[in-house]
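Q: Got a minute? One more chain.
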Amino acid sequence: MNEIKSKIQNLSSQFYHEIVEIRQYLHKNPELSQQEKETSKYIQKKLKDLNIEFSAGIAQYGIVAIIKGKNPDSKVIALRADMDALPIQEENICEYKSVNPGVMHACGHDAHTAMLIGAAKILNEIKNDFEGTIKLFFQPSEEKFPGGAKLMIEEGVLQNPKVEHVFGQHVLPTLEAGKVGIKSGMYMASTDEIYITVIGKGGHGATPELVVDPVLIASHIIVAMQQIVSRNATPSTPTTLSFGRIIADGRTNIIPDTVKLEGTIRTFNEKWRAEAHEKITKIAKNLAEGMGGSCEVFIDKGYPFLVNNNQLTEKFKLLAIEYLGSDNVVDLDMRMTAEDFAYFSQEVPSCFYRIGVKNDSKGINSNLHTSKFDIDEKSIESGMGLMAWIAINNLK
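A: Always. Here it is, folded:
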């Protein structure tokens, strides 16, 4: 296997500049979830240039490519990358800055896609050196419910031929470029969106006795909701409940008729998740009614929790150490962030790992989903090579 590893490392170095150009093109031309039409066309062109078989139009803009080694029916695994961007105005100053106003690759999906294309290019070069079949999932709409992973699974991407394992990677701006992070078992939380409309009776701010103040009711609801985590969630079930949007469209002296609240709840236990939904609804409605108003609650159930298969993850860790060195492989903690890769992990044994992209000396350390997020592009070389290395070693 040392010969194969050297081949992959050499090809990663050889293809590096081309894949960086692909990443920069994607970064410059981002598209939002469920709008990835041109991104999909671009990926298809790259696959055609490589003479790699693929099917497009899956979950609207998704693509499934197939690379067959010797004895292709012996085992099938899949590699996944997401490709949608976020509604953020980029503030970076660089040649590849987004040209689409208000749209930015602030979560690294441009790098994920580029690295998967790089891995595809490597694997296509060495397909006579491995047995089995590798599917490549270029997935749309990771950032928007119901999630492109769910939609692609529903359209049969894990079948014909049947996939035994799925691997996915995601950039991590708190981890230095050249390193990789992993956690076995429960890794990322489920995520649900909370929408509450508090209904009162508006009026003049100087005569509060004549109104039913939805702003005051909404304030009590937000505070009361915190007891769901502090007084109901057990220490063994990490839970986060946060509200990020309050719309009370009155004025300094105008109390509005309604207030809208938007938030999220995240956890790692399906039974508790359902119970928490009931508590959110009950607290909001009872509080509103007790204060003379009413309340409408809608909880949009999102992605499930993401679990990394223990056996697959331990094997990944050993392979990553072999490829990158033990100093460059780190253990990670559970995260309250969410990923629709979780749908794959709920269907087949899967492994989701993180690629470090931070470089403090270059000032590259902004967090995900921020207007100045960027990556140290040296991570692309190790990222695409590691993905190819992991793929062929899991076909055995």
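A: The first strand starts at residue 53 and ends at 58.
Q: Perfect, thanks.
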